[in-house]
């Protein structure tokens, strides 16, 4: 159960689709509309992509976020039902997510820091395979991984790109992250690793001039990287709200039994 006021101030945020925009107009007329910084709760209308966009844009506000699906993918969303919204908000279950922090260094020497609520991924930019060196907490664990790329997934993101790359699904609250190779060629049988969430992971690009690699934190990409460092954020958290029958923990569990 949430601890929202009986009449919470709601900021309705919608994706650019006509359906989402129409829903925002309808809900704003019925429940009012405030700016995100003045809201008690953010109500996101769209799909998972727009939810991630909202978390990146407004996550620093520390407001709880309740999504309703009006997009193509909705793993992080509740069903769209405009009726009884206030009752649903009061009955919703809270899930606290802690994103990954990625610091990427490019060939030019520039350094970029980004957050990832789902995953950090590295991908080859050309037909040449990527050659990567992997270190954990300052110790080299894999001298050379020849692959299309690699990714690091949070529990919330483990059912997305990570699962498609044959990585494991992680329970919420497990304090574990997944390191998963993408089309590993050498070592051919290496399937990745489960790491403590406080692990400091460094991935270096070998022979980057011939074999350029990009790094992406959710949907934010950095080209021609020489290395990245990934760790769980020590400061940032975000609270997602879910209807009791559609809570995120149950969805992640169900994913493991779908045939």
TrEMBL record:
Entry-linked Gene3D superfamilies: Probable inorganic polyphosphate/atp-NAD kinase, domain 1 (3.40.50.10330), Probable inorganic polyphosphate/atp-NAD kinase, domain 2 (2.60.200.30)
Entry keyword Kinase: yes
Pfam families on file: NAD_kinase, NAD_kinase_C
Any one GO molecular-function label of the UniProt entry: kinase activity
Binding, NAD(+): 48-49, 53, 118-119, 148, 156, 159-164, 183
Keyword Flavoprotein among record annotations: no
Protein name: NAD kinase
Native source species: Arenimonas soli
Upper taxonomic lineage: Bacteria, Pseudomonadati, Pseudomonadota, Gammaproteobacteria, Lysobacterales
Gene: nadK
